[in-house]
Amino acid sequence: MFEINKVGWLEKDIPEIGPLDALMRPVAVAVCSSDTHMSHGGSGPAFNVILGHEAIGEVVRVGELVKNFKPGDICVVPCCTPDWGERDLQMRDSNNAHGGGMMRSFKFLTQKDGVFAEFFSVNNADSNLVLKPDNVSIDDALMTTDMMSTGFYGAEQANIQIGDTVVVFGIGPVGLMAIAGARSLGAGKIIAIGTRPNCAELAREYGANHIVSYKEGDVVEQITAIAGGKVDSAIIAGGNASTMLQALSIVKSNGVVSNINYFDASETFTIPTFMWGLGMSDISIKGGFCPGGGYRIERLLNMISNDRVHPGKLLNYKYEGFEKIPDAFKAMDEKPRDLIKSGVYINWD
Amino acid sequence: MFEINKVGWLEKDIPEIGPLDALMRPVAVAVCSSDTHMSHGGSGPAFNVILGHEAIGEVVRVGELVKNFKPGDICVVPCCTPDWGERDLQMRDSNNAHGGGMMRSFKFLTQKDGVFAEFFSVNNADSNLVLKPDNVSIDDALMTTDMMSTGFYGAEQANIQIGDTVVVFGIGPVGLMAIAGARSLGAGKIIAIGTRPNCAELAREYGANHIVSYKEGDVVEQITAIAGGKVDSAIIAGGNASTMLQALSIVKSNGVVSNINYFDASETFTIPTFMWGLGMSDISIKGGFCPGGGYRIERLLNMISNDRVHPGKLLNYKYEGFEKIPDAFKAMDEKPRDLIKSGVYINWD
Amino acid sequence: MFEINKVGWLEKDIPEIGPLDALMRPVAVAVCSSDTHMSHGGSGPAFNVILGHEAIGEVVRVGELVKNFKPGDICVVPCCTPDWGERDLQMRDSNNAHGGGMMRSFKFLTQKDGVFAEFFSVNNADSNLVLKPDNVSIDDALMTTDMMSTGFYGAEQANIQIGDTVVVFGIGPVGLMAIAGARSLGAGKIIAIGTRPNCAELAREYGANHIVSYKEGDVVEQITAIAGGKVDSAIIAGGNASTMLQALSIVKSNGVVSNINYFDASETFTIPTFMWGLGMSDISIKGGFCPGGGYRIERLLNMISNDRVHPGKLLNYKYEGFEKIPDAFKAMDEKPRDLIKSGVYINWD
Amino acid sequence: MFEINKVGWLEKDIPEIGPLDALMRPVAVAVCSSDTHMSHGGSGPAFNVILGHEAIGEVVRVGELVKNFKPGDICVVPCCTPDWGERDLQMRDSNNAHGGGMMRSFKFLTQKDGVFAEFFSVNNADSNLVLKPDNVSIDDALMTTDMMSTGFYGAEQANIQIGDTVVVFGIGPVGLMAIAGARSLGAGKIIAIGTRPNCAELAREYGANHIVSYKEGDVVEQITAIAGGKVDSAIIAGGNASTMLQALSIVKSNGVVSNINYFDASETFTIPTFMWGLGMSDISIKGGFCPGGGYRIERLLNMISNDRVHPGKLLNYKYEGFEKIPDAFKAMDEKPRDLIKSGVYINWD
User: Fold this and answer.
1) Is the model's pLDDT at A263 over the cut of 90?
2) Reduced to 3 states, what is the DSSP secondary structure of residue D48?
3) Number of domains within chain C
4) The complex's ipTM?
5) C90 close to B (CB below 8 A)
6) What pLDDT was estimated at residue A3?
7) Is residue C259 part of a domain?
8) Which CATH number fits the domain that encloses residue C95?
9) Which of C156, C157, C145, C174 has its CA nearest to residue C298?
10) Using one digit for the tens of pLDDT, what is the confidence trace for C101-145?
């Protein structure tokens, strides 16, 4: 990304690494709609930034204080790599995405170059990297770095109790993982909102019991009919600022609206107070970022290796070779109707 | 209340009571700004409703299934009296204010007549009433029914951890109780926002370390200077829909904005997405209603009788005699500069 | 049960019902090892008590204040039927099994006669009964009343986080449901301890990844080898007081030992302090009873009707006819090697 | 400490420090009963270890990667100094005392020499040290390092709800801080168990409403009489393994027994199953270690500087000069009847 709406190859030096860091090269990468969103200025202007934050990488070199990794190790790289020395990460029961300030643990794109490069660096390697287990496929492992971590976080935020009825707005890759997360955390009935046929099929496979499309009538009315009234919680994994109103109107008191969508910086929530019980509804509104770090990735990998879920199914546009990254990016940007997620596999030999 | 903006004495029959209910007459009542707010249509139109929901009462008659109370008992009456047969009250870890639907446990004013009457009824008497303990003053006991329960709920919602820095917007009676609640739940520094001198003095007594006034400059800048940056949580106990923006702008990621304010039905929250980290800030927005029931009142009385807090200090406009209720109502409605809370003591002999 | 170790048919009057209660007759019942345990004096002496607490029943008559049920309704009857007027049930975030004192919500067997009778009564019918949904089988519905509720509670108590490794001691019906519960709440790897072949097979179907038998060596060593060290939490659903020591020795700091086993009143836990880090291990020890009430049963039924789990598979010894209850009881008491759970279906026509 | 029951001055080299560490010398130290306990072999044998883990220190030298501290800084040193690179510290909502294994964040005494020395080292200085604020006294600051952090943790573990009745076993320095912590977290009535008169006086000042002595009769009976039945939670901050039985017998279902006592390695808990409801009581048994790190210390200091509590009052045996450490140690070891806590102030000029 050179500037807003202008992407292409940049020539840059190999990143410097500190004593706790690792230098890596990508073995497999996936393109995220936040990459494309950013390239269009969705989070404000940016210049000469290398995009990409979902990767499996090979360790090339490690800093002198790195103890647990060595060149040649094939590792899962979380998209969110906290600097574990940040003091606010010591706060008990907090999302580690915000070490040192809001979203400051998300280093790629915002504080340094991303992973769509011949080399990229990972801070605090011992704390953030995870060796790819042999019994987990590249596709499954790659999808833990952001999609599964973010989608599952949407379900965690929703505070699902056993047997709850949960709505998931959006059946793109994050929404699909939110569905899988809701099922993994005890949801009874899951109602997903979306229209793309192959996403709908995968939504059912990941645990959705009903798929609601805006094309078939008012979404809130359809949900109400299926649920027999209001629902216990709603996860927003797509849509725009007005989706918040739909969510608030269908969640019960003592329920949660859990957002994991990345709203455009130009949008505004416009919520009449009566939609939120004049402030006394006891409907909690939460919105969070993908948690990172090696411990979380290990946990997600433990779900996969014990056959609870297979997020790799999201990857249905696959490319071979470093030079195909622009094709994968273009696919994610133009979103052909059957695309769920695009990825590129790179053999450096 | 005859209709919007028209209040006065209504003649009505003595309420019928069911087998689980009690008929009571008021011994002491307090006027709440939600009474005056409602009288001006703040929660929509209403006709021929008896106002009032904060009372100490004497039991006059009990239904045939009531076991624990008898005529003559002097009881604390929570403003929120759930019907404990409602199935959603069985949900673990929920606010009981919403049994049978949003705010449905708040029966006075909305589902039946209030306590500014010669007689009023209390549903599920065994579950909702509490004998006034001898070692708790009428004033302290009266303030548990709504002010202390609501203010403390604001602090509970804020998920305060030991040593947190907390902002409380508003130093009216609910804000003052939110301050006392924040101190009771482990807050370190408490910064209160308000201007009335006698409220500010009481705010300090209840635990505020700093009082910030909008008259002395931008509120957010003043808070930032005092806190040395952002704060851990904010409790909104006053202001209007725009106060939400101030709160969102000063709370850290992983913090809570806890609302207990009663917004006007005509207002709208207008929140640019970037004020909430594009949806990924991990700042939780909560807003709830006063929890009710006898168990909670007992707990609040236990705080008082063990000398943790004395909410009765809020009552600084006091009247004697049933016929003085309109005077107390007028005081609360017109809010003279030194008024905090008005109450009426009634001797039926 | 006439007295300890003496069971048979008792002649008793039809139970009286109060205004909130229902009189029912059993349509399907299951025998629980707590019934047989009690018959041998496991919870102390008892005389002339009708056993049985797992039932689907038909409403015969309702008290005058019951609004939601009528004669002929086929209902799921939770084994634990709280009196929702009890004040301590108003405590936020508590297990409803203890309304009015420890385990006082468990009325059958201890406070009144059980369900192995032509007629039995259910207190607080509107709050405790649930209409059996058409799309849930009798077997599945019957298993929610105790087995699924108890087993899932073991998993809830264990505070499982996404991807955790969890051990379940015991693969009897409660252990099997604890396995299903752990999977439903996000466990990654589940290691189950037990020996019976058909239980082991069902354990795998419900989500166990590994089955460990004491016959093949030291249980703790086997678990350690499979988990690669200590585990995140352990659920005790079988064994005796010494099982607690095994659990304490394999759970990590910040983990939970969650007991749902019914220990014999004659046993004693003998725990050297160093097994619990001299008191500073941060391993929580919890032990709880099956939560009850209609809301919980509805949630469990929502899991079933949305195809998350099918607890009815536990019932592998099935009998037809009221007079077969002693046969089912005998089976549960003598535990033939292939028995998991015995049940009786009753047609009153 | 040379070996069990043999203490004196050891000659050792100045500790080496790593790139993230700091070398410090003590400005003020306090003696803990875990120091004396260890010297008598309470946690097993040990040889040639320098004791001491409560200190305010001056930075002498810092490792090359330390950014926030420099020689001459006067800092509060938490007794528990996690290595923040340990992966299990990334677990959400866990006590940081166990990074890398049970109690492994407690480095002094067990993994390296303590603070009763001319020089001592602190690992991960940027994460663990806190500059002593000017508006906090040395005494107050020194008491945050272990006593206040541990005592307050006892209250946090107890999951106190507003208005709860709480028992604290023990009124030594940790018990006194548990009392202050229980009050700071919302306890209504606090009942403390102990006999020493000056401790009892301070217990009342920190928030105890009743003091119960075993000399005046059965402790459980006295508590029951004061509380009017069972209590909501109990904190064990003294006594021996049998204290657990007293605690279990007076806590309600859905309550917590919270241990912060350091039991002798030779003791055994002997708990008849019926004391714990045959395993189904829903009384949680927790026991944990002092959490550490700079963030927690900052929070405790925020309590002090905002006048919520003053733990420095514990220090009633004060000495001047490095050479007085043995006197302070002897005082703590022999425990004269009026001793609460002993400390030494050191001026290196």
Assistant:
1) yes
2) coil
3) 2
4) 0.96
5) yes
6) 67
7) yes
8) 3.90.180.10
9) C145
10) 999 999 998 899 999 999 999 999 999 999 999 999 999 999 999
Nearest 10 degrees: CA dihedral of B101, B107, B112, B113? -150
Work out whether the CA dihedral B119, B99, C143, C100 comes out positive or negative: negative
- Alpha-carbon separation of residue A76 from A58, A122, A293 (angstroms): 9, 11, 10
Residue-wise pLDDT tens digits, D234-248: 999 999 999 999 999
pLDDT at residue B306 is higher than 90: yes
**D299 → closest Cβ in B163, B185, B308:** B163
Taking residues D124-147, what's their average pLDDT?
98
| H/E stretch holding A252 | strand A251-259
CB atoms D165 and B308 under 8 Å: no
Q: Is B180 on the interface with D (CB under 8 A)?
A: no
What pTM value is reported for the model? 0.97
SS3 B134: coil
Range of the domain at A34: 22-148+290-345
B331 CB-near residues (< 8 Å, 6+ apart): B31, B317, B339, B342
In the block, tokens 């199914």 appear at A313
Instruction: Count each helix (H run) and each strand (E run) in chain C, helices first.
Output: 10, 14
Residue B185 counted as domain residue: yes
CA distance C159 to chain B (A): 15
Residues C260 and C331 both lie in one domain: no
Taking the Cβ of residue D99 and every Cβ of chain A, the question of whether any pair is shorter than 8 Å is answered with: no
C-alpha–C-alpha distance, residues C222 and C228, integer Å = 10
Alpha-helix residue ranges (DSSP H) falling in C11-148: 33-39, 125-128, 138-143
Any idea what the CATH number is for the domain that residue A244 is in?
A: 3.40.50.720
Helix, strand, coil share (%) of chain A residues, nearest 5? 35, 25, 45
pLDDT digits (tens, 9 = 90+) for A120-132: 999 999 999 999 9
How far apart CA A189 and CA A178 sit, in angstroms, is: 13
B51-104 pLDDT, tens digit per residue, is 999 999 999 999 999 999 999 999 999 999 999 999 999 999 999 999 999 999
Does B245 contact A at CB distance below 8 Å? no
A242–B contact, CB cutoff 8 A? no
D280 and D325 co-located in one domain:
no
pLDDT tens profile A216-252: 999 999 999 999 999 999 999 999 999 999 999 999 9
Whether residue B3 is contained in a domain is answered as no
Asked if A211 and A194 count as a contact pair (C-beta separation under 8 A), the reply is: yes
Which pLDDT tens digit goes with each residue over C280-292? 999 999 999 999 9
Taking the C-alpha atoms of residue C168 and residue C190, their distance in angstroms, rounded to an integer, is 7
The residue among D43, D165, D253 with the most chain C CBs within 10 A of its CB, best to mutate, is: D253
**Contact in structure between C212 and C204 (CB atoms under 8 Å):** no
Q: Which of A87, A91, A156, A302 is the best substitution to test chain D (most D C-beta atoms within 10 A)?
A: A87
Is D283 part of the contact surface with chain C (CB cutoff 8 Å)?
yes
Best of D64, D65, D92 to disrupt the A interface (most A CBs within 10 Å) is D92
Chains with 3+ CB–CB pairs under 8 A to B are A, C, D
Name the nearest CA neighbour of C191 among C168, C160, C162. Answer: C168
Cα-based angle A342, A343, A347 (whole degrees, multiple of 5)? 160
Cα pseudo-dihedral B131, B135, B137, B141, rounded to 10: -40
User: Inter-chain contact C253–D98, Cβ cutoff 8 Å?
Assistant: yes
Among B287, B303, B322, which residue terminates a domain?
B287
Q: Give the count of Cβ contacts less than 8 A between chain A and C.
A: 74
Instruction: Enumerate neighbours of C (3 or more CB pairs within 8 A).
Output: A, B, D
H helix runs in chain C, sequence order? 33-39, 125-128, 138-143, 149-157, 173-184, 197-206, 219-227, 243-250, 294-305, 325-334
